[in-house]
Amino acid sequence: MPELINGEENNKIIFELLDNLREGVNVVNAEGMLTYSNNLSGEYVNCLSKDMIGHHISEFYPQAALINVLKTGKQVHFDKVRHNNGKIYKVHAYPIFSKFSLIGGYAIFTDITEVTRLNDRLEELELRNSIGKAEDIFTSIVGWNGSIKDTIAKAKKSIGSLGGPRHSIITGESGTGKTLLARSIYEYAKEIGVIKSEATFVEVNCAQYTNADIAAMEVFGCNEGSYTGAKDKKGLFEMADGGILFLDEAHTLDNYQNLLLKVLESGYVRRIGDIKDRKINVIVIAASTKNLQNVFMPELYQRLAQYELFLHPLRDRTCMEKQTLLNTFVKKYEVEAKERYGIDLKIEFDEQVRSLLINFNYPRNIRQFRDVINSSIDSAVPLINPNLVRTTIVTNVGIENVPTELKDAHDYPKQDNRVLDEISVKEEVRDRFEVDNLIIELARNDYGPRKIANILNKKGIELKYYQVAYKLNKMKEIKENQIKET
Ligand SMILES: Nc1ncnc2c1ncn2[C@@H]1O[C@H](COP(=O)(O)OP(=O)(O)O)[C@@H](O)[C@H]1O
Ligand SMILES: [Mg+2]
Question: In terms of pTM, does the model score above 0.90?
């Protein structure tokens, strides 16, 4: 920068400028000790910025991005860091090098607590809206504009084409959203008037019956005398008349393919053991985890598979989609707490936990992903009690809340790898002067920084040896200055 006036004046202006910024600024040395903080940084943590200098940054900002910068030597950009004081910051942190060695770092950060709160509120309202609104039914399916965009377009066509609605097949591994899609098709069919608003959605898992004969009697109905003790019974086809019959795990009906084909071709159903055909008007959606082409005879497959709707397994979905799924399940949890107990629940995730949840391989797909997220949150939130009703709760889901199978799979670094954990930081701030005195006492007894750090650690005070060394140096400097002054 060209100098306006002389060097010293110029520095004064720069510091004044930094102090008037609407961003917080921290500068640390290679050990993480603050060498500069501007006014706003001090304000954020209720300290005078000049009093912060010489202390480790984690005393004021335990989640400081600068700690990562010092560990990796690389710049870090965090969109959202939640600090102990409840504030959320957007942070940009950069290393400082001198002659190729890392000598420190600086961070510039903005308080986005209010913006985030408003944004969350907006997202919540949008989600609530989409959960409750029929015309938005497909947009509440994550991936509607991504991995399953074509599938949804096909699903809409299967129902809404001018030639009339058609039957369809949904295939995909367990937990990929087959039932969700089938229900959405039903809502959509009602919405666009293809079926009446009171039309039924009849769902049957054909694999739940002990044998295919019983399944067939459920689906097609049966006549008195069709087997010993049988009564006249309406089948699910008749029950679904005017609506949708969702045949889940349809491959188990393979012995009754001819009957199924006949119903689809003719629009008449004949109960098993009966001689009478009954007219029905049903849209069939057959779902399966198997490729029905290998199970059904070609005519039947052809009849159903004009609209074959495939759902990708979770592992083939993009990272963005997994993030959105995670956010959706979290929001649903928060909405549930609000609606059930009037609790304003705000769920946060440690960055490492978020990445662990997203990168785990879930064999049972979205269902398992949802269950793991819910159980991690269950483990982090308090149990309901009368004092909590209609309060605000901010909960952080940490590594300790995640099911062990996920942690084992990733061999994740445990918490004690962190420079300072939050509790010890709080303790340390409170007892800072006591700790300083203890360090002086130990140094007087000729203990070196490593030994002092060991003793402090045993007392539950987590200071690294370099932090002790820094404190000792600082104290020495202060003492020398005092001597000079007197
Ligand atoms: N694309 C998606 N977006 C949001 N939630 C989904 C999605 N796919 C599946 N789910 C949720 O995952 C769970 C399992 O889905 P489900 O339809 O029962 O799977 P399937 O029938 O294939 O076994 C349900 O809670 C469902 O709401
Ligand atoms: Mg299902």
Answer: no
